[in-house]
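hey
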């Protein structure tokens, strides 16, 4: 999913709303200010009442716009196609308004206002969207927001046509950083270097006749580096595909890695921001008490900034209340790191209770008295609500791990890095620390592939019960 498309789809929401509101205000002023001398109004609705009603009706129009596909971002639409959709959506909206006027005659007494608002809203929304499209096109022509793509394809017709189309039409949003005529070990190494150097975002296989083994290798390469994977489909695949577009007349399919793309990402981020603000306010007394207790119990900083690996392998500092002695803690903010690392390695060997790349130490002697209590009830993780607010984490998602743990991941483990890590998740409410790492990955993968907003709500509400049960807490 091109981030540029998503950004402008989100921008359209408030702009559409303002255009609809402006259309209503224009219709009102035309009737009750401009034309009142030509044809006196039988009755006059107060401007403040009219504006309040128009604001609510405009929200209903946005819902109709969404249902008619005006905010879909799977593929760019032609101007004519989009204009037809706007006319259809505004017509549905005015039909609903006419029905509302019929049952509530006191809402609008002027048929002119209703009909004028219908025509003006169509004009305003189409013009507004054309201006947005123009701005987007100009930005893409300058390379702003364009997707950096690696193209794999020989001299076949499909490859030549697609590459030529990208060159002729920069507004499609692609900038080719490298084109490979074949895919083998050497080209894979070169492509990996390009991902590191130029930040390639997409892998585009343009030859429909790419062999099965090569295609599997390309898919694995894209998954390992969190690249969007698109391929030019043959005739059979194009007919079978549910989601495809055409570029230069060639059917192109995007492999969807998760439902958390497009509007799913927007919904989840809004949920995170609103919920984290509410939870910060609700838990602030507990965080204040925990901070005081940590400070009084042992020397050292109250907040432990633990480096973790998040979305697409990006590193960030996860905030936690310090639960260990400072002189034995591992982290950049503490002194004596080599000794602390040696001790931790020894404890993992002697008291480790978890197999796989992620370690868990039972009865860790480094934990303070207060630390043991706040760990028991996950109070130490409350500061991570601030990680959610600033966008490093999500409320719900796979747990973030340390870089040295992620380095030991097998290839299929890296799928959990496709989305933002979470404070809680499906794995946490299904067993907490009792689950094996493979079981955690399996549950996290299920969550990534089957995410819904209701799933997030259900996991959030289940989390306190998982925390209060002693199961898996060390």
């Amino acid at each position: 999913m091109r981030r540029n498309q998503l950004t402008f789809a989100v921008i359209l929401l408030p702009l559409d709303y303002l255009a609809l509101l402006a259309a209503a205000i224009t219709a009102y002023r035309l009737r009750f200010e401009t034309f009142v001398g030509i044809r006196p109004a039988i009755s006059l609705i107060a401007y403040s009442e009219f504006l309040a009603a128009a604001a609510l009706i405009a929200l209903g129009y946005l819902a109709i716009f969404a249902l008619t596909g005006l905010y879909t971002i799977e593929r760019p639409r032609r101007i004519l196609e989009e204009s037809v959709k706007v006319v259809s959506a505004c017509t549905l909206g005015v039909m609903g308004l006419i029905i509302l006027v019929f049952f509530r005659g006191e809402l609008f007494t002027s048929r002119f206002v209703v009909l004028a608002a219908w025509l003006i809203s169509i004009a305003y929304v189409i013009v507004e969207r054309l201006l947005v499209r123009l701005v987007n096109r100009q930005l893409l022509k300058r390379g702003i927001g364009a997707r950096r793509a690696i193209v794999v394809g020989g001299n076949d017709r499909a490859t030549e046509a697609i590459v030529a189309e990208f060159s002729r039409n920069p507004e499609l949003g692609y900038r080719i950083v490298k084109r490979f005529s074949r895919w083998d070990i050497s080209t894979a190494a070169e492509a990996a270097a390009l991902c590191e150097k130029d930040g390639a975002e997409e892998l585009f296989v343009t030859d429909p006749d790419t062999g099965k083994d090569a295609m599997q290798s390309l898919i694995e390469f894209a998954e390992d580096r969190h690249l969007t994977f698109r391929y030019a489909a043959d005739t059979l695949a194009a007919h079978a595909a549910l989601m495809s577009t055409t570029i230069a007349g060639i059917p192109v399919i995007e492999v969807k890695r998760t439902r958390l793309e497009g509007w799913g990402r927007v919904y989840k981020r809004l949920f995170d921001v609103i919920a984290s603000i509410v939870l910060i306010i609700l838990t602030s007394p507990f965080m204040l008490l925990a901070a005081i207790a940590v400070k009084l119990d042992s020397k050292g900083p109250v907040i432990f900034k633990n480096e973790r690996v998040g979305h697409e392998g990006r590193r960030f500092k996860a905030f936690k209340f310090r639960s260990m002695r400072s002189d034995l803690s591992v982290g950049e903010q503490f002194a004596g790191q080599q000794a602390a690392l040696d001790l931790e390695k020894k404890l993992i060997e002697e008291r480790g209770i978890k197999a796989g790349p992620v370690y868990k130490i039972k009865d860790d002697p480094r934990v303070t008295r207060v630390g043991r209590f706040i760990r028991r009830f996950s109070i130490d993780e409350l500061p991570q609500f601030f990680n959610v607010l600033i966008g490093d984490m999500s409320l719900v998602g796979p747990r973030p791990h340390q870089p040295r743990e992620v380095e030991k991941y097998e290839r299929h483990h890296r799928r959990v890095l496709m989305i933002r890590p979470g404070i809680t998740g499906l794995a946490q409410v299904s067993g907490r620390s009792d689950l094996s790492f493979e079981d955690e990955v399996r549950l996290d993968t299920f969550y990534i592939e089957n995410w819904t907003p209701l799933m997030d709500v259900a996991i959030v509400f289940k989390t306190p019960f998982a925390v209060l049960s002693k199961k898996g807490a060390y």
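The longest strand covers residues 174-180. Residues 263-468 form one domain.
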